[in-house]
Amino acid sequence: MIISSKENMIFNNINLAEEFTDPDNPTEDYLIVNNVSGRGIYGKENNSEFAAGMSGSHPLTSRIPSRILTVDITIKGKDFNHLRKKIRKLNNILHQRDIAPIIFSDEPDVVYRGRISDVDEVLEVSKIYQGSVTIECPDPFKYGLEITAELRDSPTSVKVDSPFNAQPIFNIVFTKSTDNFTINHKQSRRHLRVIYDFDKDDKLTLDATNRRVQINGIDRMHTLSHSSAWFNLISGDNSFEFNDDVADVELRYRERWL
What we know:
Elements: E1 9-11, E2 14-15, H1 16-19, E3 21-22, E4 25-29, E5 31-37, E6 45-49, E7 58-63, E8 67-76, H2 80-94, E9 100-104, E10 107-125, E11 128-137, E12 142-151, E13 156-160, E14 169-174, E15 178-185, E16 190-198, E17 203-207, E18 212-215, E19 218-219, E20 236-242, E21 247-257
Antiparallel strand pairs: 1-2, 1-9, 3-4, 5-8, 6-7, 8-11, 9-10, 10-11, 12-21, 13-20, 14-17, 14-21, 15-16, 15-20, 17-18, 18-19
């Protein structure tokens, strides 16, 4: 999906280039994304302990911190009042309570997830405003477009190219009545088992992203057996086994990168 030939941002499904372009003069840009930082080589937070009398240190834990994006923008106005209206409009777009999807024009196939935190105002003069908007992404990963695979037979295998473990969502539609459904993941040696009296055409969703079990659109976490354990997909081949000939199984996931 090409969102703009210029540097641009889609925030919470709102295309800023389109939102701030004069409909009577499409060549006039009232909002320009000058630069985006925080998308390059990514670091880790490492903890170590020192031992008396020994050189160096012993590694303990390591984690990937939240991602911080900094977006430098310029807003222009026809006059001072017009500029103030454009600034208010951008405030209304950026101030969302929930985490919002974010797409940049030079990575149109990648989605970040974040919310506004700090703003550094650089200048406001001669009908021009410039500032740096800080967006915090509690989830540091960037996600690709959703991929769907039909699991027609058991056992079956799906190859996943995601370098960081993708989180699966299974959509199951029952073709026969059964009192349980189990899906095994060979690589992690984990399984999800739901105990319920399913009828033909019932729908079961096993969502590893949100750790949610839904039957016909209703949360039914109590139907998940105590032996169940959520799992992620590995990079490479992923092998599954499930109740054969009782349901159609669809796997959905998003590849993710740093």
